[in-house]
Amino acid sequence: MPHREFEEVVLPHLDAAFNYARWLTKSDADAEDVVQDAAVRALRFFSSLRNDDARAWLLTIVRNTWYARFSKPGRADQHAVFDDMKDERPDEQLDPEALVIQQQAVERVQLAIGELPVDFREVIVLRELEGLSYKEIAGVIGAPIGTVMSRLARAREQLLAVLTPAPTSGGAGELS
Amino acid sequence: MNCPEVDRVIDAYIDGELGAAEAVEARVHLDSCPACRERVAARASLSQLIRRVPYRSAPDRFRVAVANTRRPARFSPQLLAWAAMITVAVSLGSGAVIRTIRARQTTAATETMAQDVVAGHVRALMGAHLFDVRSTDQHTVKPWFLGKLDFSPPVNDLVPLGFPLVGGRLDYLAGRPVAALVYQRRQHTINVFVWPASDSGEAPTDTRTLRGFQVRHWTHDHMAFWAVSDLNDIELDQFVHALTP
User: Fold this and answer.
1) What's the confidence (pLDDT) of residue A151?
2) B190 contacts B184 by C-beta, under 8 angstroms
3) Which residues in chain A touch residue B50, judged by CB atoms under 8 angstroms apart?
4) Which of B50, B57, B73 is facing A113, going by the closest CB pair?
5) CA A93, A100, A175 angle in degrees (round to 5)?
6) CB A129 within 8 A of CB B53
7) A-B Cβ pairs (cutoff 8 Å, strict)
8) Cβ of residue B48 closer than 8 Å to a chain A Cβ
9) Is pLDDT above 70 for B86?
10) What is the maximum span of chain A, computed from C-alpha positions, in angstroms?
C-alpha cells in the first residue's frame, strides 16, 4: 500500500528531480545516479513526508543525495557541456530575426548559468525553473532565507553582467 | 524608500516575496525613479530568458527504472500470509478450504493486476510516452505490432461509436510484453492492454474503480483485456461493449 502512495506522490515530480540533479551534476549519467539513489531514499523516508509539498521534499532529498556523493572539491564542478540543449519553445509573437536574437540570448544565459558556482546555480534553478518560494528554497538547500536572497541577488548580478558585456569585449564582430 | 533601499529588496520585489507594505514603498519609489525602474526591468527580462532555458525532463526509460525501484519488497508479506494459509489448508486436508484459497488467490491476483494496469496508464500519460505508433487507422496500428509481439492484438475502428483510435505502443505487464491500444473519448484517454489469456474461459467483466480510474477486465477469444480510463463508468462500459460485441 505505501508503494502505491509513493508512486502517486513522488513520480509526478521526477522531472523536477531530474532537472535539478542535471543542473547540479551537469551530466545525464550522474543526474540519473543521483535521482535513482534519491528515489530509494525517498522511499525509505516516505513516512517523514507530511502533507507538505512533495516536490520540495523530493528536491531536498535529491540535493542531500548529490551532496553526499559529489560534493568533494573539484568533483561536482567540472566543465559544462550544454551543446545538446536546444530551446524548443520559440515565441510566436517575434519575427524571425528577433527570434534568432532571443535564441542567442537564451543560449548565452544557459551557458552562464552552467558557469555559476553551484551555490548560485541551484538557487537560480530552484527559483526560475522550479518556481519555488524563498522559504521552499531555504528548506531544500538547508540555509536561511536571507542566504537564499543574497545568493539569488548575486547570481542575477553575474548573469546580467554576462548578458550585457562591456563594449570592449567581443562586440566588434557585429560591425564588420 | 531610496535607491539603495530598493536595491536591497529588488529581487524579493520581482519575485513577489516582499511584504505588502514594503512592496508599496518600493513601488512609490519606482514611480519616480527611472534608474531603479530600469534595473527592475533588466532583472525581469533576465527571468524571462532563464525560463526559456530548456527543461531537462527525466528520460522515459529512466522513469520506468525509477518506477520499478520498489517492486521487489512488494509481495513478501502477502507471500508469507499465503504460505501460512496453505499450510493450514494442507494440514486440514479439506478440498473446500483449498477451493476458497484458490478463489481468493485469483481475487488477489486480479487486484494486483488492476493496480499494475492503472500504474501503466498513469505512467503512459505522465511520461508523455503514450504512443509508439500514432495513427487513427487500424490498418496501420495492427501491423505495427507484427514481429514485436508473439500475438496479434485485435484493433477496432470505433469512430462511429465515438471512441476514435489514436495509437498504440508496447508495454510491459504481467511479466510479458503486451499491446497497449489508445482510444479517445473527448478529452479522456482510454488505455486498453491486451495479451493472450492464460485460460480460455470467458469470465464476466470485472468492474472496479481504483485511485479514481475506472478499470474493466474481461476475456474474449483467448485474449485478456484490461481497459482503464478517467472516463465515467457508463461510457467506459459502452466502450467495452463496443470493443467486444
Assistant:
1) 95
2) yes
3) 109, 113, 124, 128-129, 159
4) B50
5) 130
6) yes
7) 105
8) no
9) no
10) 68
Q: What is the pTM of this model?
A: 0.53
Closest residue to A14, CB basis, from B10, B15, B58: B58
Nearest chain A residue to B64, by CA: A11
Domain positions in chain A: 2-70, 96-166
Structure confidence at residue B220 (pLDDT): 86
- What dotted CATH number matches B60-243? 3.30.200.100
Indicate the residue of A23, A106, A152 with minimum beta-carbon distance to B49: A106
For residue B115, list chain A residues with Cβ-Cβ distance below 8 A: 4
Q: For residue A13, what pLDDT is reported?
A: 84
- Domain range summary for chain B, segments of one domain joined by +: 3-51, 60-243
Question: Is B43 in the A-facing interface, judged by CB distances under 8 Å?
Answer: yes
Q: Which three cell numbers stand for residue B185?
A: 473519448
Contact A18 B56 (CB under 8 A): yes
Q: Are strands B133-134 and B165-173 parallel, antiparallel or unpaired?
A: antiparallel
Closest approach of B86 to chain A, Cα-based (Å): 23
Q: Which residue has the cell 501491423?
A: B143
Q: How far are the Cα atoms of A132, B10, B14, B59, B114 from residue A152, in angstroms, in the given order?
A: 12, 11, 12, 29, 47
What CATH code is assigned to A96-166?
A: 1.10.10.10
Helix then strand count (H, E) for chain A reads 8, 0
Three-state SS string across A105-157, please?
Answer: HHHHHHHHHHHCCHHHHHHHHHHHHCCCCHHHHHHHHCCCHHHHHHHHHHHHH
Fold of the CATH domain A2-70 = Rna Polymerase Sigma Factor; Chain: A (1.10.1740)
Please name which of B138, B235, B231 lies closest in space to residue B179, comparing C-alpha atoms. Answer: B138
pLDDT, tens digit (0-9, with 9 covering 90-100), for A70-83: 765 444 443 333 33
